[in-house]
Amino acid sequence: MSDPWGTTVIGNRANKKTPTVVRSESELNKARRTGAAVTTDKKLSQLNKPTSGDHARIAKLDRENEVAPPPKIAPAVGKAIIQGRNDKGLTQKDLAQKINEAPRVLQDYESGKAIPSQIVLGKLERALEIKLRGADIGKKLEPKGKKKDEKKDDSSAPSGSK
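User: That's the sequence. What structure does it adopt?
Assistant: Structure tokens below.
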């Protein structure tokens, strides 16, 4: 007896041809000679485009958007620090130690290379007893108690009303 169902083959790829990608001209000619269906597709990509114009445009944008460097300390402040330090008879190292900063910081402030810090300027003002910020740079600082005493004297004057 013969098998009523016949022979069934599952997964035979003999009848199905999968497309293959060929990269050489000789493989393409071989496929044409055998009668296989040949299709050619041109692939487009961004890699093939020239980008010389893009670099110039980006460089121009970079030049236009540059951030200005922060302002350095004014030369008048550096001169006032030197003058105040000399009046007190202090060296750079002594003054730096007194304000708890590195001597290099003080050198930068005196030479005008430092980016101003309000904290350091405040320490220098208290140590040298001169103004380093505002309009009157280099003038002596008034003692804190003097302004309060003047206000007390004005308020203690008789007002004349009963």
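The mean pLDDT is 78.
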